[in-house]
Every structure is written in C-alpha cells, then in structure tokens.
Design a protein that fits this description.
Number of strands: 16
Number of helices: 6
Helix content: 10-25%
Mean pLDDT: 92
Radius of gyration: 20 Å
Structural class: alpha+beta
Bound molecules: zinc ion
Strand content: 35-45%
Low-confidence stretches: none
C-alpha cells in the first residue's frame, strides 16, 4: 500500500491510499484514527479515474514523468485578486477564479483574507498580482504555516495592509484546531486526527501533537504489519 495523494479544501480532506491499482480515500476528519507506519518512499505514480498506476522510480513525491504540470494556465473568465494572512504575520497576494475564492483560501489554510480586486480575465489578474507582489510574497512556505499553527494573526499589521488595499470582502476561517502549543513538525501518518488546515494535517499521538505536510507523505509505502513485526523481532533479536 502506498500514499498516492491527498485532498485539501473545505469539504472532504482525505489521504488517498493505493493498493494493487485500487484507490481508497481515508477522510481526515477530527477523531479519525490513522495507523500508517511509513516505509520507503518513491514516486506516487498516477491516479486516474479511480485507478492507481504505480511507478518504481525513486524520485518522490513524483518522478519527472508523473510530476503534474504546475505551469498555471489563466482562463478568460472572472478572477479575484486576494490577500491572505497566515498567523502570526505572513501575508501573501494571490489570484483565483472568482467562484473558487473561498475554496482556494481554505485549501491554503489562510486565517484571514481579503478580496481586493475583481478582474475580467486571468492574464489581467496576473498583472495586478505581479504589481502587488513587488511588496509582498506570492507564496507562504508550509514550514511557516506550521510554525504559526498555535498563533494568532497580527491584527495591527493586517489592518495596515487593508488600509493600503481596501477590501471588497473579508474572510475569517476557523479550522477547529484551537491548539494551545505549537505542534511538533514531523512527517507521520499515525495518531488521532485533530483536523487539517490547508495541506497541514494535525494529529495527536501519545501526549504529543504533530503537524505534517500532507505533500510530504505522498509516495510513502505503508509498512505492513508483517514488516513492522519483522522489524520488531529483528531489533529484539539484537539484544
Ligand atoms: Zn513516476
């Protein structure tokens, strides 16, 4: 069994597991128990129309053949230009097709956001974004998002930004995590799910809360129980 992908967003965050060509979605709802010890990692292959096509190449999460083409294409339809805030003080500018705005912000795990322009096409949105991006990043690293998981947004800095870019509409998102302390950043898929925030999975294992970048899980084989038992016996045998 291999972790072949994940889903983010408001409706059905999930881990996508693949075994012998079949695909299974494991919902990442609060309270779900995950028990997937990680084995080796290689290319996650391709999931198409419910079928998994595995790949033996070592590059993870995807080899060059299976890496999705991230070069964005901009459609000739209405776009929103937005600002997004990630606790405590990471701010970014972004664009998305207007109808996807709420989803796009949740996919990224934004804490606060402001829709600041509506434009008639993707290329125009890209130009507006580029201008604003002269003073603000177009992306916030997942590490920074994990660092800020237990923090609150610097409201003063956010308000100052909105003075500069008056919003058409503002958003505030609650991912239901209410963490007292910053979780330990670690790539794990075993524990009780507390929730997800964008592509960050938060789970509790023992007394410790961990935060995992879902993308960092993609490509891992799940060690079977037999393998885990064998490892245990091997380590016991060493004594
Ligand atoms: Zn591949």
């Amino acid at each position: 069994m291999q972790i072949a992908g994940y889903r983010t967003g408001p409706d059905d965050p999930a881990l996508v597991l693949a075994a012998e060509g079949n695909v299974e979605r494991v919902p990442l709802e609060s309270g779900t128990e995950l028990a997937y010890p990680l084995g080796g990692r290689r290319c996650a292959g391709l999931v198409d129309d419910g079928t998994h096509y595995p790949c033996d190449r070592p590059k993870a999460p995807y080899c060059d053949r299976h890496a999705r083409d991230w070069a964005p294409s901009y459609a000739d339809e209405e776009y929103a230009v937005y600002l997004a805030a990630f606790a405590p003080d990471s701010f970014k500018v972004g664009i998305t097709r207007s109808w996807r705005l709420d989803t796009r912000l949740r996919e990224q795990g934004a804490d606060l956001a402001a829709h600041i322009h509506t434009v008639s096409s993707g290329p125009i949105a890209r130009n507006v974004e580029r201008e604003i991006a002269a003073g603000m990043p177009e992306a916030v690293r997942v590490d920074a998002k994990i660092d800020g998981l237990a923090a609150a947004v610097d409201r003063e800095a956010w308000r100052a930004l909105l003075d500069e870019y008056p919003p058409i509409e503002t958003f505030a998102f609650d991912y239901g995590l209410s963490l007292a302390d910053r979780p330990v950043a670690e790539t794990v898929a075993t524990g009780t799910v507390l929730g997800t925030k964008g592509r960050v999975l938060v789970l509790r294992r023992g007394g410790t809360v961990y935060a995992t970048d879902l993308r960092a899980l993609v490509g891992f084989a799940i060690a079977t129980e037999t393998e885990a038992d064998r490892d245990r016996q091997t380590s016991l045998g060493a004594f």
